[in-house]
Amino acid sequence: RGASLTDLAEKIGVDAASLVQVLFHLGEMVTATQSVSDETLEILGAELEYNIEVVSPEDEDRELLESFDVDFGEDLGDEDDLAARPPVVTVMGHVDHGKTKLLDAYRKSNVVSGEAGGITQKIGAYQVEANVDDQDRKITFIDTPGHEAFTAMRARGAKSTDIAVLVVAADDGVMPQTIEAMNHAIAAEVPVVVAVNKVDKPAADPTRVRGQLSEYGLVPEEYGGDTQFVDVSALTGQGLDELLEAIVLTADAALDLRANPDMPAQGVAIEAHLDKGRGAVATVLVHRGTLHIGDSIVAGSAHGRVRAMINDLGENITEAPPSMPVQVLGLTSVPGAGDNFLVVEDDRVARQIADKREARMRAAQQAKSSRRKTLDQLFEQLEKGETQELLLILKGDGAGSVEALEDALSKIEVSDEVSLRVIDRGVGAITETNVSLAAASKAVIIGFNVRPTPHAAQMADQENVDLRFYSVIYQAIDEIEAALKGMLKPIF
Ligand code: GDP
């Protein structure tokens, strides 16, 4: 998900621009940084004679965990062991429509009913109680409004939300970010409950909001659809209980929110920071299992042992059941928001998993920073007068084309200070021999309608050898000429 040609180029050690060209010739127009489908990547792989297997970061991580005999996922165990868990809710909507006010209103009601004497801890999430059909039901709110956080977490593979509350100001109506938020929720397959807010305002027109959203497919129940709309005022408190009820009813109707509380805890870190006195502090939401003091945990590439847990009322607790947000103390470093966390056998396993993840992250980082080097650098050096000669190795799909290319290159007018020299040429794929010569002599390899062998590509990546691919002669000439004149435009 979300891989771009630049990502692929890094992985296989070729130039992203050439991948853009290859795809263009296959009839697809994409930019280097745009995300492309797995299918496109595979087609490209076939064309380049790479066997591309798209492995999502989640799969990669799952494999890592499996190698430690840890299973992370949806498997909740025996049907008999399952118990209902509260829904986790994210509040989304257009700016100024009242998301923060709504979250504040519920957080305050939580304090009133709590026992901590009115001191709330802002820990990133909190729980409120709703009375539905004479039953006390809990709801967990993620205390950050907006879909940026939601999307960021989802991008990391975290399923942190069960239900989205879409806040729409009744006086303002549906706005661009309303639709955007709605689309994020739909894409994540998260059911939506609509809070039609600010109904206390004279200009409020809740019926219009219903009509507008119906056009986008969110049809109110009273119109025969399956979306709950509730008129509320975060200011006066009107409708807030009804909104909680609508959330519970939607969860009951659309979702099977159950978890086995009797297994090692797993979940997601929704917030984390470094506290001067307490060290790394992370708020986690348990998805399944129960988290206990003393558990050895991994969260992203952080690990440690649960030293203390603090709930949303600032109370120290000893165990956290599913959907209860808790601040966890005892991690050795700060995980990222959206990182999954899990309890493992012991500290040693926790450390090993964390270290492996850390190493993988570093490797990815390095791949990024080492990419696309030589030609640009060479041109820089040419400009600075540090290098006087641009060395090229030409590989093409036929003797004729290689000759034509060399011929055209020789006609490039270069200044007195710099020159261009072809040190090797040949027909066929770019080989390891080509790459090692290029590496030794700091030459750039030009592939004309040819590709490197997988080993050559790998080697080029390791050796920082620049491979450039062209399928039209004048493009090759243009780029090299421009480069020699110190005018190479960035390709991206
Ligand atoms: P956000 O950007 O969606 O988080 O919006 P805020 O919660 O910051 O609210 C934006 C403004 O609308 C603030 O001035 C709030 O006081 C006001 N506001 C929020 N909810 C209501 C409401 O129900 N009625 C009225 N009259 N004003 C509200």
Please render the helix and strand layout as text.
Blueprint: H1 5-12, H2 16-25, H3 38-47, H4 57-67, E1 83-84, E2 88-93, H5 99-113, E3 125-132, E4 135-142, H6 147-155, E5 163-169, H7 176-187, E6 192-197, H8 206-215, E7 229-231, H9 240-254, E8 258-259, E9 266-275, E10 279-288, E11 291-292, E12 296-299, E13 302-310, E14 316-317, E15 319-320, E16 325-331, E17 340-344, H10 347-369, H11 374-384, E18 389-396, H12 399-410, E19 419-427, H13 432-441, E20 444-448, H14 454-462, E21 467-470, H15 473-484
Parallel strand pairs: 2-4, 2-5, 5-6, 6-7, 18-19, 18-20, 20-21
Antiparallel strand pairs: 1-8, 3-4, 9-10, 9-17, 10-16, 11-15, 12-13, 12-17, 13-14, 13-16
Helix pairs in contact: 1-2, 12-15, 13-14
The protein binds guanosine-5'-diphosphate.
What does this structure look like?
This protein has 492 residues and is of the alpha/beta class. The protein is 36% helix and 24% strand. It has 15 helices and 21 strands. A six-stranded mixed sheet has the order 3-4-2-5-6-7, sandwiched between helices. A hairpin with a 2-residue loop joins strand 12 (296-299) and strand 13 (302-310). Helix 1 (5-12) packs across helix 2 (16-25), helix 12 (399-410) packs parallel to helix 15 (473-484) and helix 13 packs parallel to helix 14. The two termini are 21 Å apart. The model is unreliable at 112-117, 368-375 and 487-492 (pLDDT under 50). The site of guanosine-5'-diphosphate has 16 residues, from helix 5. GTP binds at residues 93-100, 143-147, 197-200. It is found in: Cytoplasm.
